Amino acid sequence: MTHPATTSDHQARLPEPQAGPPQRADPARWPDVVRLPAGGPVRTAVAAHLVGRALRKLPLDVRTGTGTVRATGSGTVRATGPTRRPDLTLHDPGAFFRRIGSHGLVGFGESYMAGEWDSDDLPGLLTVLATHVDDLVPAPLHGLRPLWAAARPGRDRNTRRGARENIHRHYDLSNDLFASFLDPTLTYSSAVFTGFPARFEDLPAAQHRKIDRLLDLAHVTDGTELLEIGTGWGELALRAAARGARVTTLTLSTEQAELARARIRAAGLDDRVDIRLCDYRDVEGRYDAVVSVEMIEAVGAEYWPSYFATLRGALRPGGRIALQSITMGHRQMLNTAATHTWISKYVFPGGLIPSRRAITEHAAAAGLRTESDLGFAEHYAHTLRLWRERFTASRRTVTDLGFDTVFQRLWEFYLAYSEAGFRSRYLDVRQIVLTERSPR
């Protein structure tokens, strides 16, 4: 399976990304990007017909490498922000349709990584596609999905060993890489803004607002014994310790743990925070409160019962659990769980975004009830836009860190793809409070 570089295995430095094919891409690292799939002309022709017909119905413009423009549909886009029509510029239409014919949406993402297409408004284009995702393939052909949608590989299962490897492949890329596009709090989850539009310099305050709201929901005060599942780079632990809480925080990322410890020492709070390289399934002890921010998405559906059992088992009587989770519709979740998606292949191996229904049902099975549940998708769309703008502006830094053009296009696509998910409301993000269910 192809995956991004780690800090111990960087690529040779390459020029900044530009329109058109990436230069000197490493075929050993990016085999499915460098080499076109073996799909034959029939599949390619079918994809060209079906995708071309779908695109003609959407509010976007398709351009070819010769500069011709085909005005297309006039449908609407559910989105926050500008509503102008984005474009889809095909540098290599044959390769584009061949990849889609062979591998569907995975091929669509790989075609972007290969530089075979671009857009003047990538998140806008992806928002159009996400809004009309159910219309892209004719309904009678939905049952043929297994022909091009591969099953998830068994090696990505989140066993204890698998979970460590999956976390390593994303979160241990490089602390400097994440610092190049995150704000100074190094918070890698949705912020909560007071209003829109908000400037990048407002992001640290918005991240603190999000963290403080979670701590308030969990009733974290002076003397609270708090368990955090998913340390990140330590900002929530810092703010909880500053309130007087004693924090035990768990992570499987060695790079995050190292930097989080340094930040906590620098703040003089290391006597209040214990960072452990520990799987959530190995939690010991009980706590007044548990907080977990956008970590359930990395657990995998197979292990959600274990995750919620851990939450329940770690809670003292009267305690509270505050979760922040990305969610998607239940039907969409079931379809995603059954297939190997572009995101699971290149960004979050082993991950799956739950539905609200899945969270409620698994929590109830573990003896927990949902006390409150608040969504704020537009805040995540804005957070991601700020990250994407920062990432794009930091290309030279990212190149100097050793990440090649394919990697950079991968991450540009990932950030825009995620932003589009929230702009179209295909995705949501929610803060959920769970408490012990009263015995009947």
Describe the model.
The protein is an alpha/beta fold. The chain has two domains: about 35-150, no CATH class; about 155-435, Rossmann fold (3-Layer(aba) Sandwich), CATH 3.40.50.150. It is about 40% helix and about 15% strand. The protein contains 16 helices and eleven strands. It has helices at about 30-35, 40-55, 95-115, 120-130, 160-170, 175-180, 205-215, 235-240, 255-265, 305-315, 330-335, 340-345, 355-365, 375-395, 395-400, 405-425, and strands at about 60-65, 70, 85-90, 115-120, 225-230, 245-250, 275, 285-295, 315-330, 370-375, 425-435. It has a seven-stranded mixed sheet, with helices on both faces. It has a four-stranded mixed sheet with strand order 2-1-3-4. β8 (about 285-295), α10 (about 305-315) and β9 form a beta-alpha-beta unit. The radius of gyration is 22 Å and the shape is globular.
Layout of strands and helices, then pairs:
Layout: H1 31-34, H2 41-56, E1 61-64, E2 69-71, E3 87-90, H3 93-113, E4 117-118, H4 122-131, H5 160-171, H6 175-179, H7 203-217, E5 225-229, H8 235-242, E6 246-251, H9 254-266, E7 273-277, E8 287-293, H10 304-313, E9 315-328, H11 330-337, H12 342-346, H13 356-365, E10 368-375, H14 377-393, H15 395-400, H16 405-423, E11 427-436
Parallel strand pairs: 1-3, 5-6, 5-8, 6-7, 8-9
Antiparallel strand pairs: 1-2, 3-4, 9-11, 10-11
